[in-house]
Amino acid sequence: MTRTILVVDDEPAIRVLLEHELGRQGYRVLTAQDGVEAIRKVEHDRPDLVLLDLMLPGMSGLEVLRQTKAHGRVPVIMLTARQEEVDRVVGLELGADDYVTKPFSLRELVARIQALFRRLSPTSRRPITYARLHLDPARHEAWLGGRPLDLTATEFALLTCFLEEPGRVFSRRELFRRVWGLDDIDDTRTVTVHIKNLRTKLLEAAPLIETVRGAGYRLAIAPDTDTAPPEKR
């Protein structure tokens, strides 16, 4: 199946470059030069991934991100020339899965795209039940006490890591390697913000993910296998 990527950037040279390179990688590429056009294509074409520049004319990239997330679980990788950490953090808190700072390496961008699609790919792994949590990796679905959880691909992958090895401490670097599929972590804040978002969605199970000072994170609650997942219909 050919994946569709929507490139949203007001710079024609960037759109042409990415359309050519991603097309060469086997992806179907759509482009948009502003936020209004981007939202229209998200609604009409249902892309598998959005590459989104934050510095857009008119409607801001952050507003495009908000509206894109309102249309479902469309993964988003932010493209931005801004150096301020707050822009990246706000985007991640709004649900972006990753970011790449301009000027970017095409090789790195393609690697991040491939890593994100791997997180979304169906898997033969069996469902995992731990305490009141139930994950079905093959369906990419999660529940907490029978309530469905709306997790991004990155949040789902992080939670899977913790549930597969309860009690194990994962460093930020290891989580970045296992979830993003890359060895070179240039900003540990990325992992930190995704953990924060995941904790917020698991609020009623707090403290599910525990911070181990100076070491990383681990699953902190005891298992309760009496809780069954919701029935499928």
**Count of helical stretches:** 8
The structural class is: alpha/beta
Low-confidence segments, ≥5 residues, pLDDT <50? 225-233
Percent of sequence in beta strands = 15-25%
The percent range for helix content is 25-40%
Q: What order do the strands of the largest sheet run in, or round the barrel if closed?
A: 2-1-3-4-5
Radius of gyration over all CA atoms, rounded = 18 Å
Number of beta strands? 11
- Total separate domains: 2
CATH superfamily of the largest domain: Response regulator
- Under CATH, the topology of the largest domain can be stated as Rossmann fold
Distance between the termini: 27 Å
The CATH architecture of the largest domain? 3-Layer(aba) Sandwich
Structure report:
The protein is of the alpha/beta class and 233 residues long. The chain has 2 domains: 4-120, Response regulator (Rossmann fold, 3-Layer(aba) Sandwich), CATH 3.40.50.2300; 128-219, Arc Repressor Mutant, subunit A. Helix content is 39%, strand content 19%. It has helices spanning 12-24, 35-45, 61-70, 85-93, 106-120, 153-164, 172-180, 189-201; strands at residues 4-8, 28-32, 49-53, 76-80, 98-101, 128-130, 133-136, 141-144, 147-148, 209-212, 216-219. It has a 5-stranded parallel beta sheet, with helices on both faces. The protein has a 4-stranded antiparallel beta sheet with strand order 6-7-8-9, with helices on one face. It has a two-stranded antiparallel ribbon with strand order 10-11. Helix 4 (85-93) runs parallel beside helix 8 and helix 6 (153-164) packs across helix 7 (172-180). The longest helix has 15 residues, at 106-120. The protein is globular. The chain starts with a strand and ends in a 14-residue tail after the last strand. Residues 225-233 have low confidence and may be disordered.
